[in-house]
Design a protein that fits this description.
103 residues, alpha+beta, three-stranded antiparallel beta sheet, two-stranded antiparallel sheet, 2 helices, 15% helix, 21% strand
Length: 103
C-alpha cells in the first residue's frame, strides 16, 4: 500500500467485490484465510477510524459496527472502509500461513 488506498481507485475483486470498498476483517486468523484464498503471501494491519467503517454488505452479520466487531462465539467481524487511507494506515502484520486453521 505504497500510495494508500482510495475508493474506486482499484479493480473489482474476483469475488465481485466492489471497488468502492476496502474489505476488512477483525481477526488475524480470518485475514490469513482470505490471504490464502487469494494466493497473497502477506497480511496487513490497517489503522482506521470507526467513522470510516461500515458493516460488509456481502459477508457482515451485524446491524451496526459495534455488533459486527463483537460477534458472539469469537466469530470474526467483516467490515468495509469507505474513505481514503494514507500509506501510514497500513503496516505489515505477517506472512500468510499457507494452511490457516479456521474453527
Amino acid at each position: 500500500m505504497l500510495y494508500g488506498w482510495a475508493p474506486e481507485r482499484g479493480r473489482s475483486g474476483g469475488q465481485c467485490g466492489q471497488a468502492r470498498y476496502l474489505y476488512l476483517t477483525t481477526t488475524s486468523d480470518n485475514a490469513q484465510w482470505y490471504a490464502t484464498e487469494k494466493m497473497v503471501d502477506v497480511v496487513l494491519k490497517v489503522e482506521v477510524d470507526r467513522s470510516q467503517l461500515r458493516v460488509d454488505p456481502e459477508d457482515g452479520v451485524g446491524e451496526t459496527i459495534e455488533e459486527e466487531m463483537n460477534c458472539p462465539n469469537g466469530f470474526p467481524g467483516n467490515l468495509v472502509c469507505v474513505s481514503a487511507l494514507s500509506p501510514e494506515s497500513f503496516s505489515f502484520l505477517a506472512t500468510a500461513d499457507p494452511t490457516p486453521e479456521m474453527t
